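Dear colleagues,

As part of the handover before I leave the project, I'm documenting each prediction I ran so the next person doesn't have to rerun anything. This entry is a single chain, and its sequence is reproduced below.
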Amino acid sequence: MEANASGFYSTINLVKTIVGAGMLAIPYAFRSDGVLLGVILVLLAAITSGFGLFVLAKCSKALKEPRSSSFFTLCSITYPSLSLIFDFSMFLQCYGVGLSYLVLVGDLFPGVLGGTRHGWIIGSSVAIVPLVLVRKLDSLKYSSILGLFAIAYLACLVLGSFIESTLLTDNYKNIRGDVSWVQVYDTKGLISTFTIVIFAFTGSMNMFSIINELKDNSLSNINKVVSRTMFISSIVFLGVGVSGYLTFGSNVMGNIMLNYDPDSKLTVVGKLCLGSMVILSFPLLFHPCRIATNNMIHWIRITYSETKEQPASNNESRPPTTPIFMTVEDEEDRLLLGLGNSYQATSCQDASHDLEQNSVTVARPAAGVPFSDRAFYTITAILVTSLYLLALNVTSFALVLGLVGATGSTAISFTLPGLFGYKLIGSEAAKHGRLMSTADQILKKCSLLLALFGLVVTCVSLYVTLYFEA
């Protein structure tokens, strides 16, 4: 697959992956947090999520073929026994959110344009099916641009209402409740809305597709994409969060669109933009969902089928049909992979001594996970069909979605990037017989802190989901 994506369009796709319907819940989080803490939490989420994306990019450079990077390939060389679990987490996250988008389409459009819930869900396939049939994330750049126009309108609606009601007139006195600038307004609410802000910047699911498809996928160029994405997303979230909260104060609802006059033409257009944004966001979540499904099928096939046919000797290579595993015979390859985490040694000689104690066969992504045309279309058909069937029969699954978000979003945003970084950062130095740089040592320790942060977020998120939504 030709890599010809530009940094500009990659930024657009990543921003559209991050900024979605959840943007309209940010003012509700500010309602409990207050302005000061709300801003701090948004910035914390941006920094931690952005650092996670940066670590994933840096870890991809530890591979001999960086354009074959994915959660699956990195798991295969760091925590091979957990590859299936991590891809299953990715699958659940993307599948669950994609399903929620279809349900939202069925709930939103009938109230604006008439018709039935089932009719609008089925009708959305006219736009969605062609978009999910594209193989490259970069091919979704134009639909992402349309989605960004919808986001821009919604953000302007919130900001414009704030300017009109608060800065230019005194209308806010009739619609705004209490406002807390410094103190936390509602401690219980702070806990219950914590996940709204912390998961706002989830975009890791498409990070590797962006890395693989960028024409210039140097680390510096990838960092520019990540930096621009986080800056734009932060401005949008802070703008909507602060202006929406200052407009309605403690009266702001979970979806700020519910605070506006439902008969207003501006509100009607806003709801249409919201529905369009959801439809255009669906393919961006479906793309990593399909990849995760193919990875799981591949893992099961090579683990429980082909491995049984292999010779007992550890010195014989696996056939070409199993590209994730191969024999590593030279010291350079072992050092590059960081086998046994040996690159933490203070010298190349120490690392070599440690490597001699390990088996010569390790997991390494040689050419990426194969994805034939037949598998691509079969998986796409099964996933799309199942999603639509569930959307037609499910109206609310907040608890399940909350549990998926608490585990899946945390894993791909914080825990996994942190664990990968702790294992792989510094492997290039060991490969060339150099000491790990001070910068890499700091990044390695920060990666471990990111993984620990992810575990804390998981615990808090599960508590919030089970205690407040069960």
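Confidence is low (pLDDT under 50) at residues 312-367. Residues 7-308+327-469 form a domain with the Amino acid/polyamine transporter I fold (CATH 1.20.1740).

All the best with the project,
I.
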